[in-house]
């Protein structure tokens, strides 16, 4: 039987990064993947395909509205959904090929098949009726997550769909209902709205992106409404009448008032759950936490010695870069180093237009922890670069400790927030203060000057506000 120092189950951003880091540290690592291709949710049905569609749909949307303000006139804009989907698939397959090369470069054997525990240090790998067994001193579970289904609105793959199906609609639905105003609902809702669908978003809570700063989320909602998305907030879906070409989704508000909306497609995006089916966890007694995730300590050890878990299958935000950080840390722990992930400095981004990005504690989260806070705000509309780009919507909020000035968190809704948040993440990681950000010279004219202005505003000394 083949023996490895580390067997990693699952080749998403958590698993493949763990395997590479283990190999770099001199460990003999194997990567197990049940799908034909490496890359997991993020590469095949998550981060990358959504961003490819967001880019294409943004271009289409902008062109459709004309570039007259720039003195540019174009002909009639036409859309080929088939070409747009083909481009997305090409991006994914090029990156998948790169991943296969990375495994070769790092001499990591890839075992295709479903991994299941026979014992804590023995995993059987089954593919197309063939079963082989391997031994590993350490096993890392990185099997990711799957969409949560709504019992009153189960997926049927045709009308009521998950994010995976909503990445490949053959034509633009005339009307799309999205259930859930989180990252998936807003990103995919934006894609199909920009391409021409009338999109209605039904959200259980009275606001969108519940994890984000309220003011930033409200600003994003207003911007999306301006783009034509309709929001019905504080409503509960109670059922649906499904027909051949669409559905009528029934919902009610917290006063019990009933309403309904018709749609050709219904995207249910109400969260994801850890995916552990077929792993045989019960056979070796791996404990779960209160939310059904694999329970792990700070060093990613499960309740079973030698077995570790990372990524979407454990606590924390379900984000690719969080899974990657944990992949690096778990390999380091296994190699005997102090692998660590700073849970307070993991940025999160919603890639709508404008984008919403956050890191650390937003104002409400800091107050909920009982921390004394002071807040600085600055707006893109007074920023020279934002004006030249014609992207003036949004704001930056910097939250600092009221007594020590230590930076606690930053929320940004605005153009390229996904890139701007990196500076705030570095400042947090270095335990910087609002004053540190405020005294850092920022190139002019750049969008990053808004972050500096917000840091200046913490001490009520903004220059342009
Ligand atoms: P996964 O990427 O889910 O990989 C798990 C792998 O394990 C899969 O390949 C699966 O086939 C394999 N597997 C499962 N069981 C077994 C088994 N028994 N044997 C062998 N293999 C097995 N995150 C971001 O940070 N940014 C984004 O922009 C973003 N966009 C997203 C958009 C969508 C539509 C979705 C659905 C998710 C998005 N995410 C995004 C979340 C991100 O995809 C996940 O957080 C990330 O993929 C988690 O990585 P992971 O390694 O834990 O698991
Ligand atoms: P989410 O948790 O981000 O949002 C789900 C939304 O659905 C919430 O607003 C919630 O209040 C709402 N909801 C829950 N039950 C509901 C119900 N019965 N009716 C109406 N609304 C309901 O989940 P998601 O958008 O499905 O995304 C899943 C995971 O994937 C998230 O953890 C997210 O971090 C990750 N993801 C990240 C990105 C990104 O980083 N840009 C993009 C997509 C997905």
Task: Provide a descriptive summary of the structure in words.
This protein is an alpha/beta fold and 465 residues long. The protein folds into three domains: 2-146 and 273-343, 3-Layer(bba) Sandwich (FAD/NAD(P)-binding domain), CATH 3.50.50; 160-270, 3-Layer(bba) Sandwich (FAD/NAD(P)-binding domain), CATH 3.50.50; 354-458, Enolase-like, domain 1. 32% of the residues lie in helices and 26% in strands. The protein has helices at residues 13-24, 40-45, 47-64, 81-105, 163-166, 183-194, 214-226, 281-284, 320-334, 363-368, 384-389, 417-429, 434-438, 448-458; strands spanning 2-9, 29-33, 110-112, 114-119, 122-127, 130-141, 145-147, 160-161, 175-179, 198-203, 230-233, 235-242, 247-253, 258-263, 265-268, 272-274, 307-309, 348-350, 355-360, 373-379, 395-401, 407-414. Strands 1, 2, 3, 4, 5, 6 and 17 form a seven-stranded mixed sheet that branches. The longest helix has 25 residues, at 81-105. The radius of gyration is 23 Å and the shape is globular. The termini are far apart. Bound molecules: flavin-adenine dinucleotide and nicotinamide-adenine-dinucleotide. Nicotinamide-adenine-dinucleotide binds at residues 150, 179-185, 187, 202-205, 210, 237, 269-272, 317-319, 348-351.
Which key features would you list for this structure?
465 residues, alpha/beta, FAD/NAD(P)-binding domain, Enolase-like, domain 1, 3 domains, 7-stranded mixed sheet, 5-stranded parallel sheet, 22 strands, 26% strand, binds flavin-adenine dinucleotide, binds nicotinamide-adenine-dinucleotide
């Amino acid at each position: 039987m083949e023996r490895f120092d580390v067997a990693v189950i699952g080749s998403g951003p958590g698993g493949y990064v763990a395997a590479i880091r283990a190999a770099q540290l001199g460990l003999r690592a194997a990567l197990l993947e049940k799908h034909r291709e490496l890359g997991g949710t993020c590469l095949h049905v998550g981060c990358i395909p959504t961003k490819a569609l967001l880019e294409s749909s943004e271009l289409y949307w902008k062109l459709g509205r004309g570039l007259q303000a720039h003195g540019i006139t174009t002909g009639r804009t036409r859309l080929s959904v088939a070409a747009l989907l083909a481009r997305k698939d090409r991006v994914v397959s090029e990156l998948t090929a790169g991943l296969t090369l990375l495994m070769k470069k790092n001499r990591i054997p890839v075992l295709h098949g479903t991994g299941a525990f026979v014992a804590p240090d023995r995993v059987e790998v089954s593919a197309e009726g063939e079963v082989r067994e391997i031994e590993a001193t350490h096993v890392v579970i990185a099997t990711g997550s799957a969409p949560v289904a709504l019992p009153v609105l189960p997926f049927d793959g045709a009308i009521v769909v998950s994010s995976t199906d909503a990445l490949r609609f053959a034509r633009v639905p005339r009307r799309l209902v999205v259930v859930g105003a989180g990252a998936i609902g807003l990103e995919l809702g934006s894609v199909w709205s920009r391409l021409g669908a009338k999109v209605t978003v039904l959200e259980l809570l009275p606001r969108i992106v519940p994890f984000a700063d309220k003011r930033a989320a409200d600003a994003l909602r207003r911007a999306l409404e301006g783009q034509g998305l309709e929001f019905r907030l504080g409503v509960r879906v109670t059922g649906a009448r499904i027909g051949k070409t669409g559905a009528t989704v029934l919902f009610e508000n917290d006063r019990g008032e009933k309403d309904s909306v018709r749609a050709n497609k219904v995207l249910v995006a109400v969260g994801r759950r850890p995916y552990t089916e077929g792993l045989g966890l019960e056979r070796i007694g791996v404990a779960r936490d209160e939310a059904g995730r694999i329970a792990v300590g700070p060093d990613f050890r499960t309740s079973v010695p030698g077995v570790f878990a990372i990524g979407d299958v454990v606590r924390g935000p379900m984000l690719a870069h969080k899974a990657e950080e944990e992949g690096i840390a778990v390999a380091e722990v296994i190699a005997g180093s102090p692998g660590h992930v700073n849970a307070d400095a993991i940025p999160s981004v919603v890639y709508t237009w404008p984008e919403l990005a956050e890191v650390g504690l937003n104002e409400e989260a800091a107050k909920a922890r009982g921390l004394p806070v002071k807040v600085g705000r600055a707006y893109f509309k007074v920023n020279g670069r934002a004006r030249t780009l014609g992207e003036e919507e949004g704001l930056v909020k910097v939250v600092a400790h009221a007594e020590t000035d230590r930076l606690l968190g930053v929320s940004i809704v605005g153009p390229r927030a996904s890139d701007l948040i990196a500076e705030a993440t570095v400042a947090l990681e270095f335990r910087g203060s609002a004053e540190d950000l405020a005294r850092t010279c920022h190139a002019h004219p750049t969008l990053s000057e808004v972050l500096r202005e917000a840091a200046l505003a913490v001490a009520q000394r903004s220059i342009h506000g």
